[in-house]
Specification:
- The complex is a heterotrimer of chains A (432), B (364) and C (318).
- With 432 residues, chain A is α/β, with parallel strands linked by helices.
- In chain A, 42% of the residues lie in helices and 14% in strands.
- Chain A has helices spanning 2-18, 38-59, 78-89, 101-114, 144-158, 178-181, 184-194, 212-221, 233-244, 287-297, 313-336, 343-350, 357-362, 405-421, and strands at 25-31, 67-73, 118-119, 137-138, 169-175, 197-203, 225-229, 252-254, 275-278, 354-355, 372-373, 385-390, 395-401.
- In chain A, α2 (38-59) crosses α11 (313-336) and α3 runs parallel beside α4 (101-114).
- The longest helix of chain A is centred in the last third of the chain and has 24 residues, at 313-336.
- The model of chain A is unreliable at 1-7 and 13-21 (pLDDT under 50).
- Chain B has a domain at 34-270.
- Chain B has 14 helices and four strands.
- The longest helix of chain B has 28 residues, at 50-77.
- The two termini of chain B are 12 Å apart.
- The mean pLDDT of chain B is 86.
- The chains are: A alpha/beta (432), B mainly alpha (364), C mainly alpha (318).
């Protein structure tokens, strides 16, 4: 049996190596179009894939070289994520996009060893924003911690000043996994600083669709605000359950994985007033997205079956990931003067990304997101967070709220130090 | 013709009761070990996709085989149904993590083996109900263990040293002067460590099963009342089965985190993994060690081959579709296997050997 | 002392200080329990007739609503989609009987259990393959289910009653009544009970086991569809529902594997106890105890009353 297995393994392994290694930019994309979170993963993956395909169709790739987006299905499962990573590792992949906090945690250490930069845009390990300690990890535009601070400062603003937060009770309902627990330390720091009380409500993955007791607790404890770190079916279940106990929707704020169009489906009216955080604009009115529709979606070159999903929150977030990746490729090509670049070139390029207004409009994405600047020290940039509100039909951006940098950045640095303290041989860098 | 014991005479009891009484079997097993310890690492070391072959296929296969042996001890030999295997592997993993972080100078291999004892202790506790109930009812108590432990792994922050992400993260760990675990460890080294542990523990298991303890398990399995009348103590037999089974699961879990994943959340020990190991036991064959390897290979490697096959032979198909088809094929094959050969691949292997003995003259 | 107070006195004081909230909790628990009972009912039907513990019941719930919503989204009117889905569940039942059950007659318990887990995998793949894996919104209004809610003033506080929840309870009641009538008054129902009592005796008086099995699986499929519609309307239609169905196992232990009234009463007990414990005691343990509490209750039951509340057969004791 082992022989048979070996042969089979050999066959598949050989076949992988013998795949044509022509000049192309290999961008592996770890997607989850299956499994319990597929509803969100599909839209996101489509955004990424379609934008890259559009670049291939319109410009013939980047710098004249085609981009090969190789999707690997993880089903949001960390073990499959590792398998996917290993399967492309040997073929000069330019980047790792894990699309799951769990997978990110597993790959963070491998990134520096294998010299492949890792882009976890707006998720993953917050501490990785400290570029000097995590040279290979990028989590622009903002970390979970930055986002949490922005949400709280938004609440403070709505309450009429941060001082008014004192004595308030803020509920935090989260998916009881690495992802949901991520912002807890910062939330505690902030609660000490501003004197509000935190009501923690963990939702186990299994109980995602069974939240009535969680919301009864909310009703019992009567928090002034609710913040949600949810994902997948947890979001819509939470919104329905909140409506059930008459929790005021405009005092309920979801993070950027809890405020997409899919989460509102089927209960658009109930959710009216619900607030969310995001980092991209809404809609498909941007020239680049029009190109995507014209060159990719309409001719049927993508997996997007429902054209109305183009331009919605998660789709555009996929596009942002693609834009950042493409931008890094462009810079790396410019830096090296070559078209076939490596992961190490990509890493250097990421630190030079400067998505200014001008650059965005050059790309046909004017106003698509807040300007992003990544540097050697700041791998997330702690950029402002766009707050939006659901009006019953669509997400309406209200304003961009800056991150409370003076609180978040020292916390990030302390966390980064703690992370590497027990890891001998950790690669760091010094920024001039 | 080739596989025949004709001419191999046993002259003493020792050789008659050897693990592999037939020469061809001994040669075969030696060849397997040679493959596992020499050919596979060499291929992994020399080939460009060797790292994927080792990290993505062989290491998990070896670890899963060990866990499957653990579950097989409980299910196949002692006849107790368990749905808590995933959680028991988790106990081993968390125990090993705590050992390594508290005693950094401890040798990792020692820590991995020690973590098995913690899993064994937990296994005994949740094995206690087996003294009163069995079958599906026992499955429920193990399911309770599964969900309770999953919850505990998240809620008891001490277990993961209060890391905000709640994950176990493995740094580089050195033993015998080389890095054997962590991100910078060489895949070949990791593979060799895992394989040696697995071979060693399989050897131990095969001897325990052939010995007094193993025979008492099988008596309990086949007919508990008769076993009791003949002087087998159900308490000792059942709890020792739970202990040994959990020990193997625990070691497997520790290896899973330290030599394969590198970082793990509770997700890696969830109920789906319990099912996965159950599949491996059933497909491989209950009550068979070689079957445990076959089952692990079948359930772990087949989906990978299906996953990468379309791309390699040039069929344009979306990965998500492949995943759906994968689920259908594996599910279908499980049902098919159960219908055609409920005793698993091990039974097929045995039948093949019996056929081979009389080949090419089956009627002679 | 403080600990004892927070375990034995505090929560009760909490309960009685806000009676209207307590009633709300009990109502939520009751509705939840009804849904658990429905899932457990699917298990019991199949276990009674074929001795199979059907692990695929959870995925059957998902599969059924996915088919329903998928058909609707494909442009089929809601009422027709409902009928077609019932048809699909019928075909599925026949298919399962042919492909899975028939070849596995007389096999060991564990083998049958495994077969249903395999079946669950297959259905999970097939469901996503055919209808797509994304979350779907339940077509609550299209099916004519009510959506509003009423408020009632009880004990000086307000208690909310979602119309959907009321409908869920009524529909569950009707379904159980219909099944009861079916089992006691019809020819097939009596044959079914005969099979449940003794396979061989049933065979010897000319009852076709295969036919009965297909019918039972079909009935379980319809129960799954109803459960799915209700659960989907309360949250969302997605594959995450599958795991919740495992709670039925705890319900079955408490109610007994073979008793339909047992499943219903135990379901409601689990729903109520779980809610009360989570809300009034859960915070002592950091919350989220709902995930395992039902199983621990089941464990305690196993130790003291292994046959469950209404189980007929005395469990094999060691």
């Amino acid at each position: 049996m082992k022989i048979k297995l070996l042969l089979a393994g050999l066959a598949s392994a050989l076949a992988i190596t013998s795949a044509p290694v022509s000049a192309e930019l290999l961008v592996p994309h770890l997607t989850y179009r299956t499994g319990p979170f597929a509803g969100n993963g599909i839209v996101f993956a489509n955004g990424f894939y379609d934008y890259m395909t559009m670049l291939n169709e319109r410009d013939g790739g980047i710098g004249g070289v085609k981009v090969n987006v190789e999707e690997c299905e993880t089903g949001y499962n960390a073990q499959k994520g590792v398998e996917c990573y290993e399967s492309t590792k040997g073929r000069n992949p330019l980047i790792t996009i894990p699309n799951s906090t769990g997978i990110t945690l597993q790959l963070i250490q491998k990134a520096s060893v294998d010299q492949i930069p890792l882009l976890s845009a707006g998720y993953g390990l917050s501490a990785a924003a400290v570029g000097e300690k995590f040279p290979w990890i990028f989590n622009a535009p903002t970390t979970y911690w930055g986002q949490m601070s922005a949400i709280l400062s938004y609440i403070g603003e709505l309450e009429g000043g941060m001082d008014n937060l004192s004595g308030k009770k803020i509920g935090f309902i989260y998916l009881d996994a690495g992802y949901g627990r991520e912002p807890l330390p910062l939330l505690e720091t902030l609660s000490e600083q501003y004197g509000f009380e935190v009501l923690k409500i963990p939702v186990a993955g299994k109980e995602m669709q069974n939240q009535s007791s969680h919301w009864l607790t909310v009703r019992k404890e009567k928090p002034d605000w609710m913040i949600m770190w949810g994902w997948g079916a947890m979001n819509s279940t939470a919104i329905k359950a909140a409506a059930k106990i008459r929790f005021p929707m405009d005092r309920f704020i979801g993070n950027w994985w809890s405020s997409a169009h899919v989460d509102m489906k089927g209960h658009e009216e109930l959710a009216k007033g619900y607030r969310g955080a995001t980092f991209s604009a809404n809609g498909d009115s941007f020239p680049a997205l029009q190109d995507v529709i014209k060159l990719v979606v309409d001719p049927g070159k993508s997996q997007t079956t429902d054209k109305s999903t183009v331009g919605n929150v998660l789709y555009n977030r996929g596009v942002i990931n693609a834009v950042l990746t493409a931008e890094a490729i462009t810079i790396a090509q410019k830096n090296t003067g070559k078209t076939d670049i490596t992961g190490a070139d990509m890493r250097d390029a990421f630190e030079q990304i400067d998505m200014s207004e001008a650059r965005l409009s050059e790309l046909g994405l004017e106003g698509f997101m807040e300007p992003i600047k990544i540097s050697c020290t700041e791998h997330s940039g702690s950029n402002p967070v766009i707050m939006t509100q659901w009006n019953g039909e669509d997400w309406v951006p209200s304003k961009a709220v800056p991150v409370l940098r003076e609180i978040v950045i020292p916390e990030l640095e302390a966390a980064a130090d703690k992370y590497i303290s027990d890891k001998p041989g950790w690669t760091t860098q010094t920024c001039s | 013709m080739f596989y025949r014991e004709a001419g191999q005479f046993k002259t003493d009891y020792k050789s008659d009761s050897a693990v592999f009484p037939i020469l061809q079997d001994r040669v075969g097993i030696a060849f397997m070990i040679f493959l596992a310890l020499v050919v596979v690492p060499l291929y992994g070391w020399s080939s460009s996709s060797g790292e994927f072959f080792l990290n993505g296929i062989m290491i998990p296969f070896m670890i899963f085989a060990l866990v499957t042996i653990g579950l097989n001890i409980l299910m196949g030999y002692a006849g107790q149904l368990s749905l808590g295997t995933g959680a028991f592997t988790g106990v081993g993993a968390y125990a090993c993590y705590k050992l390594i972080t508290h005693f950094p100078e401890l040798n990792l291999i020692v820590a991995v083996l020690m973590s098995g004892f913690f899993a064994a202790a937990v296994g005994i506790i949740f094995g206690l109900p087996s003294l009163r109930i069995k079958g599906l009812y026992l499955a429920v108590t193990t399911l309770a263990a599964q969900f309770f432990l999953e919850w505990l792994f998240i809620r008891w922050e001490w277990l993961y040293n209060y890391d905000p992400s709640g994950a176990l993260i493995v740094p580089d760990i050195t033993a015998f002067g080389i890095i054997i675990a962590g991100p910078s460890a060489n895949a070949v080294v990791k593979y060799l460590v895992v394989t040696l542990i697995v071979i060693f523990m399989t050897w131990i298991a095969s001897n325990v099963i052939r010995g007094r303890i193993g025979r008492s398990w099988m008596m309990i399995r086949d007919m508990d009342i008769a076993a009791e009348l003949m002087g087998v103590r159900p308490l000792a037999a059942k709890l020792s089965a739970f202990a040994m089974s959990s020990f193997y699961c625990g070691v497997g879990g520790a290896m899973m985190v330290f030599f394969w994943l590198g970082a793990a959340e509770v997700e890696s020990f969830d109920i789906n993994h319990s099912f996965l190991f159950l599949f491996m036991v059933i497909i491989g064959g209950m009550g068979s060690l070689i079957g445990s390897f076959m089952g692990a290979a079948f359930i772990w490697v087949l989906p990978i081959i299906i996953k990468f096959l379309p791309a390699t032979i040039g069929i344009e198909i979306y990965p998500s579709t492949v995943e759906h088809i994968n689920l259908m094929i594996i599910g279908g094959l499980i049902v098919f296997f159960l219908a055609v050969e409920p005793n698993g691949l091990a039974r097929l292997w045995q039948l093949a050997k019996e056929k081979l003995r009389v080949w090419p003259f089956p009627y002679a | 002392m403080e600990l004892l107070h927070s375990i034995f006195i505090g929560p009760f004081a909490d309960m009685f200080s806000d009676l209207s909230f307590l009633i709300q909790v009990l109502w939520e628990g009751f509705v939840q329990g009804t849904l658990y009972a429905l899932i457990a009912l699917g298990f019991v039907l199949i276990f009674k007739a074929s001795g199979v513990f059907n692990f695929a019941q959870g995925i059957m719930v998902v599969f059924a609503v996915l088919a329903l919503v998928g058909l609707y989204e494909a442009g089929v009117p809601a009422w027709l989609a409902l009928i077609l889905t019932i048809g699909i569940m019928g075909l599925l039942a026949i298919g399962i009987e042919r492909v899975v059950l028939r070849p596995l007659v007389n096999q060991h318990d564990a083998i049958l259990l495994m077969a249903t887990i395999g079946l669950a995998r297959f259905l999970s793949g097939a469901g996503q393959f055919i209808f797509g894996g994304e979350n779907k919104a339940m077509i609550t209004e299209e099916l004519g289910l009510p959506t509003g809610s009423s408020e009632a003033e009880i004990f000086g506080g307000v208690v909310f009653f979602e119309h959907l929840d009321i409908a869920a309870v009524i529909i569950a009641g009707l379904l159980v009544a219909a099944l009861a009538v079916f089992f006691s008054k019809t020819r097939i129902g009596r044959a079914l009970r005969a099979v449940a009592d003794d396979h061989q005796a049933a065979l010897s008086v000319g009852i076709s086991l295969n036919q009965i099995w297909a019918i039972v699986w079909f009935a379980a499929g319809i129960v799954a569809l109803v459960t799915g519609i209700m659960w989907g309307a309360r949250s969302d239609v997605s594959f995450a529902l599958e795991i919740i169905a495992l709670k039925a196992l705890a319900v079955l232990i408490i109610g007994g594997f073979t008793s339909i009234p047992g499943a219903i009463i135990a379901g409601i007990i689990v729903g109520l106890v779980e809610k009360l414990f989570e809300i009034y005691w859960g915070s002592l343990l950091g919350g989220g105890v709902e995930a395992w509490f039902a199983y621990i209750v089941a464990l305690i039951f196993l130790l003291f009353r292994p046959q469950g509340l209404f189980g007929e057969k005395i469990i094999e004791r060691v």
